[in-house]
Q: What sequence folds into this?
């Protein structure tokens, strides 16, 4: 099973989601069952480490992010079983790249799994520290539910 998180720049929300899901899988002894990756719609930050504000926020919740940004590609739709868009713009951009119904079925919104709300994981990039913590709280309460829904 292969899961891909997608946001705009792949330096804030999706690499943090990847790190949280990987941490939970590790803690639950399930790392060999689900492979996790993340990517961005935009190529602007390709190769870069995640935003230092996102890494600091993750660290406050004992999560380490090591990912280097990479762009989402059409080929990913053939290789990933579940593709989770962090917001509606990401979702429509991914959907535009799909070829068939099987691919479209694999694309979902991250917050479809959030027990406390739905819609976008708000983009923290242009805001203050609170936005990054808010992302972490959403990820931490949602990732176990994603694992349970897959396995
Ligand atoms: P992300 O955040 O999509 O969560 O990685 C952003 C990163 C960069 C930009 C916007 C959002 N940007 O405009 O460069």
A:
């Amino acid at each position: 099973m292969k899961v891909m998180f997608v946001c705009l720049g792949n330096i804030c929300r999706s690499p943090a989601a990847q790190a949280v899901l990987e941490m939970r899988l590790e803690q639950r002894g399930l790392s060999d069952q689900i492979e996790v990756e993340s990517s961005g719609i935009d190529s602007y930050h390709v190769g870069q480490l995640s935003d230092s504000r996102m890494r600091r926020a993750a660290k406050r919740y004992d999560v380490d992010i090591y990912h280097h940004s990479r762009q989402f590609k059409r080929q990913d739709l053939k290789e990933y079983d579940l593709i989770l868009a962090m917001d509606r713009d990401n979702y429509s951009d991914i959907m535009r790249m799909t070829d068939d119904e099987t691919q479209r079925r694999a694309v979902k919104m991250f917050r479809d799994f959030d027990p406390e709300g739905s819609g976008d994981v708000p983009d923290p990039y242009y805001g203050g520290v609170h936005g990054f913590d808010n992302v972490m709280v959403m990820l931490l309460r949602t990732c176990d539910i994603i694992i349970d829904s897959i396995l």
